[in-house]
Amino acid sequence: MNDKVYVDYVEDDIIDFFLERLEYYKSDKKFAQRVPTMKGNYFSTGNLLQFADAQLIPYLQRIKKQVEQDINQSLTYRYLHMLDYSYTKGPFGFLRRGGSLLRHNHRHAEDYTSLLYLNDCKDGATFFFLNDKREEIQPEKSKLVMYPSTIDHGSNYSTSKKILVSGYNYG
Predict the structure, then answer these.
(1) Do the Cβ atoms of 106 and 149 come closer than 8 Å?
(2) pLDDT at position 34, please?
(3) 3-state DSSP call for residue 26?
(4) C-alpha 101: how far from its chain's center?
(5) Residue 159 has pLDDT above 80, yes or no
(6) Per residue in 59-116, pLDDT tens?
(7) Which one of 2, 4, 43, 157 has the lowest number of neighbouring Cβ atoms within 10 Å?
């Protein structure tokens, strides 16, 4: 598998579903989990696959199918979590919003990663290091970004980005 970042788009109903789910996850602190590579005031879930239900699974299958088609590789889900950089109040008592994501990769946890932007925002571009060059992708509602988990990446400071992060293993 090459170190290439792929970009595609998903249908609006997928975005609507996950925006609604994000609000539900934010309402119950059992879903909240701090991420060591993130800095600032944000909301992040732990692995949501353990909470997958009959409503969630068809949406996950559609996203995975699209990723598999784009990269021409069979995948299985390994990890799923959501981030909300606009988070202002909740389980951790945040009153301000915004955060950034430090440079990291997922090689220790999974083979492939996808990011699904749930909203448009002018801040918080995701950056990737490809061939020793930093490249940025601007968040855009419905944009699906896919890349091998060995690629170093992070995120510029954002006060508005909402995102679904999926980790996959080959298979």
Answers:
(1) yes
(2) 86
(3) helix
(4) 11
(5) yes
(6) 999 999 999 999 999 999 999 999 999 866 655 555 568 899 999 999 999 999 999 9
(7) 2
CA distances (Å), origin 156, targets 54, 101, 102, 103, 165 = 35, 7, 8, 10, 16
Contact 128, 137 (CB under 8 A): yes
Closest C-alpha among 163, 143, 151 to residue 111 = 151
* Count of CB atoms situated within 10 Å of the CB of 170: 12
d(C-alpha 90, C-alpha 158), whole Å: 18
Closest CA to 159 of 97, 109, 80: 97
As a residue count, the chain comes to 171
Q: Which pair of tokens denotes residue 91?
A: 């389980």
- 3-class DSSP state of 106: coil
H runs (alpha helix) in the chain = 12-26, 56-71
| pLDDT digits 0-9 by tens, 13-37 | 999 999 999 999 999 989 999 888 8
Q: Tell me, letter by letter, the H, E, C secondary structure of 36-75.
A: CCEEEECEEECCHHHHCCCCHHHHHHHHHHHHHHHHCCCE
Residue closest to 154 by CA, chosen among 106, 110, 121: 106
**pTM exceeds cut of 0.85:** yes
